[in-house]
Write a structure and sequence with these properties.
By secondary structure, the protein is α/β, with parallel strands linked by helices. It has 2 domains: 2-84 and 185-280, D-Maltodextrin-Binding Protein, domain 2; 86-181, Periplasmic binding protein-like II (D-Maltodextrin-Binding Protein, domain 2), CATH 3.40.190. The protein has 11 helices and 10 strands. The strands form 2 sheets. Strands 2-1-3-10-4 form a 5-stranded mixed β-sheet, sandwiched between helices. α1 links the parallel β1 (2-8) and β2. It starts with a strand and ends in a 17-residue tail after the last helix. Residues 87-179 form the Ca3427-like PBP domain. This is Substrate-binding domain-containing protein. Pfam families: PBP2_Ca3427_like.
Length: 284
């Protein structure tokens, strides 16, 4: 029995992992797969891949590309969610800021440098024509840190996935002043090089199992009600999220897609340099 550790954010995107683990689908194939939640997001998972705390991570595309360029010994195997991620731009309930334009010189709360909340703040600044070199950041760790920073005034705005933060908008903790979709597929599967080299067949088995689940995920009976209950969301919000979310069809990621993403990331000043996209891809 091979032990493998997989990690991802504790959000609705990753519920297929819960289903397949609950059904012991990996165990039946001789793989002892263990899931870890990473509420700190992609920056936290990139660190875990580097130190071997996880073997496989479901990470934001922009975060892992940047970290592999910066020396993370991992590779991207495939897209996990191919639709964009909708990043809500939030301020505190009593904030003086009313629009995205008001935030040009404000302090943005981020989970950590290299995380999606950091990189998408840069994308948002670029989209609005701001000087990205003058962005001010406050590292807050996770969504609770974002709540605390906006409530105390240590930071002025916080970007996090639209539907995950919707309950905080509904209960008056946050006000959402706008959204910023990722200009690329949002989540990919990244695997440590050591695991790819020594256990490619087992990694392929894991991917086959999860891809089979995601291909029929929206057809699961009452999946909208199940997700709404588990993640404390309004049913209509989950239904909207399901309608705009598309998982990968199991195809490996291509060099062309990663080259296009790197070009955009370079234009957005999210990365300082590009590398051969083939060096980002792991082959099974």
């Amino acid at each position: 029995m091979l032990n493998l550790k997989v990690g991802g954010v504790p959000e609705h995107f990753n519920y297929p992992w819960y289903i397949t683990l609950k059904n012991k689908e990996y165990t039946k194939k001789g793989i002892n797969l263990r899931w870890s939640d990473f509420p700190g997001g992609t920056g936290d998972m990139c660190k875990a891949l580097r130190n071997g705390t996880v073997d496989i991570a479901i990470v934001l595309t922009e975060g892992i590309i940047k970290d592999i360029i910066n020396g993370n010994p991992s590779k991207i195997i495939q897209t996990f969610v191919k639709s964009p991620l909708i990043w809500g731009i939030h301020v505190g309930a009593n904030s003086k800021f009313k629009t995205i334009q008001d935030l040009e010189h404000a302090t943005v709360a981020i989970s950590r440098f290299g995380s999606g909340s950091h990189l998408m703040a840069i994308v948002n600044a670029y989209n609005n024509g701001w000087d990205v070199t003058k962005l001010k950041f406050k590292v807050v760790g996770d969504i609770q840190g974002g709540i605390d920073a906006l409530t105390t005034g240590e930071a002025d705005y916080f970007m996090w996935e639209h539907f995950t933060t919707k309950p905080l908008v509904d209960n008056g903790t946050f006000r959402r002043v706008g959204d910023c979709p990722t200009p690329w597929p949002c989540f990919v599967v990244a695997v440590r090089d050591e695991i790819l080299e020594n256990h490619p067949k087992e990694v392929a088995t894991v991917l086959n199992i999860i891809n089979n689940c995601t291909s029929d995920f929206k057809k699961i009976n009452n999946i909208d009600a199940t997700l709404a209950d588990r993640y404390e969301q309004q049913l209509e919000d989950i239904q909207e999220w399901l309608s705009i979310t598309e998982w990968n069809d199991g195809k490996p990621i291509s060099k062309n897609i990663l080259t296009r993403i790197q070009n955009k990331m370079e234009n957005f000043n999210v990365i300082e340099k590009k590398i051969d996209s083939g060096k980002l891809i792991g082959i099974l």
